[in-house]
Amino acid sequence: MGRKKSRQGNGSGTVSKRKDGRWEAKLSFRESGGKLRRLTVYGKTAAEARAKLVELQDRFNKGILAEPSSVTVREFAQGWLERETQGKAANTKRLYRQELEHALGILGDMKLQAVKPSHVRAMVDRMQSEGWTPRPTKRNPDPTPRPYSARTIKKALERLRGLFQDALRLEVIHRNPVEAVRFKAPPAEPVGRSLEPSEALALFEAADRHRAGLVVQLLLLTGLRRGEALALRWRDIDLEANPPYLRVVGNWTRAEKDHMSRLKTPRAKRTVPLAPELAERLRRRKESLLSDYPAQAVEGWFVFALPGADHPYTPTYTANVLEALCREAGIPRIRTHDLRHSYGSLLLARGEKLERVSELMGHANPVITLSVYRHLISDERNTPPLSLSDFITGSRAQA
Q: What is the pLDDT of residues 43-73, one digit of tens each?
């Protein structure tokens, strides 16, 4: 007995009953290259199969009917990463790969078109319950699994969402399965802090007693990012100007290996004045080098490096120096980036304008400065009004 067919019009597809009792709907169309394609969907009833056919036709008419593909999520991710990170700094590219790899470790082998919201939800649940296991080392051949942080899960979802959004634009898929998944991260705890003036002074003095302490002093009194400071060469510092200054022109970063990369933003290329105390210490360091080496050679050398080295101190070494100085100064341990945060905080605390602080720190725009230091500006609004004695003495009376 042949199949019972219900024609839906010329070129609009067919609905027919199968021998197993199910109903199937077929849609035929030609791809952009001229190849004939047939898509088949099934239903328990003719009405269900016909409804699915109408959905196919609607997607086809809108131009979002994806072509079948055997490409996996990991295979598609290779091209997406290349397109998405084109023109970005090497360190940004590294972070994108790391963040996406957390998701690819679970969904990477699935067919791109087969991923559903339920798969993404299961991925998030698995990351929360199982965590991740560090690579074995000689010291720790059997590492203990660690929980994923909320930020890591959020970033993995963010990169995965971008990947599927790109596939949607290219009409490889007809919906983004990540959009339906929600992950509510708990409120983030403050990661860093700003040094108190007394702590900053103690750290600065402790740095005088360390052979590599000058890099910490410069980070504290200029607000440079660590990579910007490590990229400095002596030719980038003018100690004869009044006042002395340095030019931020590069960024030493760690991706697959340490190397020079572009600055984070166009406004990061800037000129920063030097405090007299810092200029004096830089001058003494340079004079010491000039007493032993030709001036032309010294000008091209990295400021924070062994004499004549083709690379500066590593970021890890700089962090270790800071940790040692914190112990010597008797202050709690801080991150390298907290030196930059302290610089911005102290500038605003002494009344420097937001736009000027943004310029000195190389932020893309003052809005970023405002978002980071809003709490300080809010505190200023709560400052008591000036008293008569303030006008007489020219400064606020001490409580």
A: 999 999 999 888 887 777 665 565 556 789 9
Count how many domains the chain has.
3
- What sign for the dihedral angle of Cα 224, 226, 232, 237? positive
Cα(242)–Cα(327) distance, integer angstroms: 35
| Cα 243 from Cα 238, distance rounded (Å) | 9
* pLDDT tens by residue, 195-221: 888 888 999 999 999 988 999 999 999
Question: Do residues 46 and 15 lie in contact, with contact meaning Cβ atoms separated by under 8 Å?
Answer: yes
Residue among 29, 51, 50 at smallest CA distance from 38 = 29
Query: Do 41 and 79 share a domain, yes or no?
Result: no
The CA distance from 313 to 230, in Å, is 7
Residues 6 or more apart in contact with residue 113 via CB below 8 angstroms = 66, 68, 69, 172, 173
Other beta carbons within 10 angstroms of residue 261's beta carbon come to 20
What DSSP string describes 177-208?
A: TTTT----PPPPPP---PPPHHHHHHHHHHHT
Please report how many Cα atoms fall inside a 13 Å half-sphere around the Cα of residue 375, on the Cβ side: 8
148: domain CATH number is 1.10.150
Same domain, 88 and 138: yes
Sequence-ordered list of residues with C-beta below 8 angstroms from that of 117, at least 6 positions apart, any chain: 177, 178, 179, 180, 181
Instruction: Assess contact for 160 and 178: CB atoms under 8 A.
Output: yes
Q: Where are the beta strands (DSSP E) in the chain?
A: 5-7, 14-17, 23-30, 36-43, 237-238, 245-248, 251-254, 258-261, 270-273
Question: Measuring CA to CA, which residue among 73, 303, 270 is closest to residue 167?
Answer: 73
